[in-house]
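Justification of resources, computational component.

The compute hours requested in this renewal are based largely on the per-chain cost of generating structure records like the one below. Each record pairs the submitted sequence with a full structure-token output. That output is archived, and it is also reused by downstream analysis tasks.
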Amino acid sequence: MPDLVVILRTHSDIEAQIVRGLLEAHGIPSVIASDVPHSVFPLSVDPLGEVRLSVREDDAEDARRVIESHRTEQRSGQVVRLRDEFETLERAIGYRFRDRGLLEHAMTHTSKANEDASGGVLDNESMEFLGDALLGFVVADLLFRECPAFDEGAKSKAKAGLVSTGSLARRAERLQLGEHLLLGRGEEKTGGRRKQALLADTYEALIAAMYLDGGIEAARAFIAREFREGIDDVRRHGVAGQDFKSALQELLQARDRPLPEYRLVATAGPDHSKRFEVEVVVDGEPLARAIGSSKKEAEQESARAALDRLQAPDAPEA
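The structure output for this chain reads:
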């Protein structure tokens, strides 16, 4: 067996796997070894456990050159270190990752992973699953503690409104998550950075990444900050949010316009995680579209978007 040379030492399984995929894409085989057993989850290795990536001695020089060539990228005429590409996102979320690989994993859409022939790039679907559970738990805990007078039905309604696809997508847009997504070429061309469902899923994956990197308190602190205003609104008004369908109907009636119609445009996703796209139409004119985890949610979100359009300062009165 030829001698092996260690060309990368790290405390991140994910970083080692990404570099391994990069090398294999250039025809350089490599071997990963660590001081601790690998988990089925993409967790960081304990600081006392080191992950080592090794190549054959005669490949070492080429491997180092490949790694070095991918440490920088050209953006707007400036050379930006890859390790700093999420700097603005970390500032926006108010959390600095110890393992940047977890953040990169959370931002990686399945379309990007599918384009990687080496299999060394992981998508964020598992993180989305974990983040959804974490978000639901923390929001439920906040409602339990801060809205003790609410019965179970009121709490459930409040929680559903706070963690809806539309709500999460708007929070993702505020954090500009779309700018940091790692997308495949096809998804990029079809406007993936602006898709509500994709942004909401990435927001959940981001929460999971914080949990894996900093524990439950890191995730809880982020969620508490993000949902502070929403929780306060629920506590003051006793509702999960406005009934946008009713509000849209009232606005249209006040303007002597016909009542809105809601049309199911498309469905996507597996049975356990369906996404519904609904279009709201008034007098034959499509006003807005939105996506939700149920037809009811999608209708509410499309009504919200229609209200925003009709109530814009430059919108016509009829």
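Strands lie at 4-10, 31-34, 51-56, 72-75, 78-81, 261-268, 275-282, 285-292. The chain has a mean pLDDT of 83.
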